[in-house]
Amino acid sequence: MELLPLWLCLGFHFLTVEWRHRSGMVTAASQGGCELLDGVADCRGRNLASVPSDLPPSSRTLLLDANPLRTLGNNSLQRYPFLESLSLHDCYLERIGHVAFQEQARLRSLALPDNALSESYKETAAALHGLRGLRMLDLSGNSLTEDMAALMLQNLSSLESVSLARNIIMRLDESVFEGLGHLRELDLQRNYIFEIEGGAFDGLTQLRHLNLAYNNLPCLVDFSLTQLRSLNVSYNVLEWFLASGGEAAFELETLDLSHNQLLFFPLLPQCSKLHTLLLRDNNMGFYRDLYNTSSPQEMVAQFLLVDGNVTNITTVNLWEEFASSDLSSLRFLDMSQNQFQYLPDGFLKKMPSLSHLNLKQNCLVTLHIREHEPPGALVELDLSQNQLSELHLAPGLPGCLRSLQSFNLSSNQLLGVPAGLFANARNLATVDMSHNQISLCPLPASLDPGGTPGCVDFRNVASLQSLSLEDCGLEALQDCSFQGTALTHLDLSGNWGVLNGSIAPLWDVAPTLQVLSLRNVGLTSSFTELDFSAFENLRSLDLSGNALTSFPRFGGSLALQTLDLRRNLLTALPQRAVSEQLAGSLRTIYLSQNPYDCCGVEDWGALQRLHIVADLAMVTCNLSSKVIRLTELPAGVPQFHTGYVCALPLVTSLELVRKGRDSVLPCSKNTSKSSNLVLWMERVSVLRVPQG
Ligand SMILES: *[C@@H]1O[C@H](CO)[C@@H](O)[C@H](O)[C@H]1NC(C)=O
Ligand SMILES: *[C@@H]1O[C@H](CO)[C@@H](O)[C@H](O)[C@H]1NC(C)=O
Ligand SMILES: *[C@@H]1O[C@H](CO)[C@@H](O)[C@H](O)[C@H]1NC(C)=O
Ligand SMILES: *[C@@H]1O[C@H](CO)[C@@H](O)[C@H](O)[C@H]1NC(C)=O
Ligand SMILES: *[C@@H]1O[C@H](CO)[C@@H](O)[C@H](O)[C@H]1NC(C)=O
Ligand SMILES: *[C@@H]1O[C@H](CO)[C@@H](O)[C@H](O)[C@H]1NC(C)=O
Ligand SMILES: *[C@@H]1O[C@H](CO)[C@@H](O)[C@H](O)[C@H]1NC(C)=O
Ligand SMILES: *[C@@H]1O[C@H](CO)[C@@H](O)[C@H](O)[C@H]1NC(C)=O
Ligand SMILES: *[C@@H]1O[C@H](CO)[C@@H](O)[C@H](O)[C@H]1NC(C)=O
Ligand SMILES: *[C@@H]1O[C@H](CO)[C@@H](O)[C@H](O)[C@H]1NC(C)=O
């Protein structure tokens, strides 16, 4: 108790300071240490066991989250008749007195997430029934069953938004949401719902947003919530989705069916405003082979519907159903992580507004590019991680893919692309062709053009900015492969020998390149032209996994911020080179996994002080048969001369300091002092002198 006044005092002091910064607003502290500001009483996390009784009676918002209240008594809110918003998140609430909200006629928003309201739900339900003006009610995380939820929501007809997320609801029937005629938003995610009876949502004529993610629904048939704008049924076990037939106009804009077990493309309303359809991670495919028919028109699926004691077999002609669904507004379609082996002819033609199509991680083998298919509005196309060995381009299609900006063909089995594909795509900025075995145009004159598959031509694709060709098995580049582009990002990693002794093939893009990755390409320092001085906008350069024995040249005025030199054959630390060439700009350098000679690390301290070595702890040097971490060298080393370093690992810094500068010896054998060094080291311990 003695501490309280002081604490309050501090609290008040803080608040007055606060007040000065937000002039015009009234702040004060209350008994419970709540912060008061402009009608808001913020009592979160104050270890309160009851609602403070000395808050301004005019308070409109009361935040009591994270206090161990356990019970909200009948009278605890009596003094605050003007409350519009009350938040009791995580208050261990088990009971709410049945007249607790008697005075709260103005309450609009009530948040009760993460409590234990199932404990005495009947009393709580009675308390809620007094709230005739309530618009927002959050009951998530309260272990409520459907019956408890139904009781609590009964007659709360003013509600516009309800969350019942993270409860233990299993079934929904028409009684649960009865009379909630103004409800616009309903969150039921993370329950155990496996069944929704017909009519469960019938009374919810204003419902716009319904979230059923993370439940156990096996199918949605006869979906007929025409007024709904967004429906989220992701992370269930849906095997099929079937909208009710007929020509009713649906308002549906966003449908998330991702992470289910759908076998067929969903059968969508015939008239809707759908712009986002998310189908990621299902088991969907088209089944031409299964039906042994060349025409999709003949594909039929039969669904067994069991409803009580009535069993119905519904026959659906998949293609007709698909063909009759309205996809004219669709802009975003995610079909990634499915089993699509092909797309039927005309499939994409139904989506003239499509701008983003994701087909990543399917089983596509070929793709035909025809007129309006994919549609001209397409901006982003991801075909990565398929088995594409062929792209077909219908002849005479000058404007195809005219809006395309990003094209991902990574990890397929392509040997090339149709001539002119990229040249036609006038807005193409990003191409990822990594992990395909291709060659770039022009091919060396020596190669017989007849015998090899066509080369991929990026020349004069003026819009191209980012190109990934990692691991494409590229042959040595000719000098003008990137001529006429203004590449800012280029990845040539993993193509061993792609720069055959010279970085000349990159001259064309040297002025524009900002990010260049040359990992594992077989660069050696004998490259006469390993000089990046002309790359004046280069910000990031990855040279790891090569055979560099010396630091590349950069010239003076570089923008380089990140440099990766790991896994090379550097024997000397590049301190001087770094500070001379890259002073100012360089922020991160990776240096580990090089066989630095411990006798050549004199610049280590200076380099360390620049605070730019990102893998500091991993940098080692090579001392005869030993590998030593540079960070394990005793502190103070940098103040001494080189020679010490060779002896350091086995002496303490104390000894070093005592010995002082005079006894510092260079380690190279060819200096006059080398014999002294050997003597000295023999005295300290056993340490072999490195071969100089
Ligand atoms: C609220 O008052 C009623 C009697 O009016 C009583 O039965 C109930 O236990 C009280 N609840 C709480 C939480 O105090
Ligand atoms: C709900 O409203 C109906 C009719 O308006 C009424 O008969 C019923 O008693 C009310 N239930 C509660 C719990 O207030
Ligand atoms: C659907 O709900 C899940 C789970 O809350 C969420 O991750 C996902 O983003 C939602 N989908 C949309 C389209 O908002
Ligand atoms: C598929 O159809 C062709 C002719 O249309 C027929 O020869 C073949 O046996 C059929 N295969 C199967 C598995 O039914
Ligand atoms: C099916 O169930 C309904 C009521 O649920 C019952 O009236 C009817 O007799 C049942 N029919 C059969 C064939 O069992
Ligand atoms: C069974 O099918 C008939 C005709 O298609 C339909 O009228 C009836 O409502 C269906 N019954 C169920 C349980 O789906
Ligand atoms: C292309 O797809 C691959 C694999 O799906 C991904 O790793 C890569 O980041 C994508 N490329 C671009 C440029 O987005
Ligand atoms: C690689 O460089 C050498 C020497 O400059 C040259 O003789 C050879 O033709 C080049 N190879 C290719 C494939 O360009
Ligand atoms: C020291 O570096 C050389 C390469 O220069 C390497 O062959 C040798 O294995 C390294 N020594 C140790 C102990 O790793
Ligand atoms: C001796 O060291 C100097 C540099 O300190 C070097 O230039 C010279 O080549 C070395 N001589 C021998 C024989 O190693």
TrEMBL record:
Keyword Plastid recorded: no
**Pfam families in the cross-refs:** LRR_1, LRR_8
* Membrane topology category: Single-pass type I membrane protein
Keywords attached to this Swiss-Prot or TrEMBL record, sorted alphabetically, are: Cell membrane, Disulfide bond, Endoplasmic reticulum, Glycoprotein, Growth factor binding, Leucine-rich repeat, Membrane, Repeat, Signal, Transmembrane, Transmembrane helix
Classification via Gene3D superfamilies: Ribonuclease Inhibitor (3.80.10.10)
**Would you tell me the Gene Ontology cellular component terms?**
cell surface; endoplasmic reticulum membrane; extracellular region; plasma membrane
- Major site of localization recorded for this protein: membrane
User: What family is this?
Assistant: Belongs to the LRRC32/LRRC33 family.
Q: Does the keyword Chaperone apply?
A: no
Q: Which GO terms describe its biological process?
A: immune response; inflammatory response; microglia development; sequestering of TGFbeta in extracellular matrix; superoxide metabolic process; transforming growth factor beta receptor signaling pathway
The name of this protein is Transforming growth factor beta activator LRRC33
Q: Which residues form a coiled coil?
A: none
Protein task: Key regulator of transforming growth factor beta-1 (TGFB1) specifically required for microglia function in the nervous system. Required for activation of latent TGF-beta-1 in macrophages and microglia: associates specifically via disulfide bonds with the Latency-associated peptide (LAP), which is the regulatory chain of TGFB1, and regulates integrin-dependent activation of TGF-beta-1.
Q: Which organism is it from?
A: Bos indicus x Bos taurus
Any signal peptide, and if so, which residues?
A: 1-19
Give the source lineage, highest ranks first. Answer: Eukaryota, Metazoa, Chordata, Craniata, Vertebrata
The record's subcellular locations are: Cell membrane; Endoplasmic reticulum membrane
Q: Name one GO molecular function term.
A: transforming growth factor beta binding
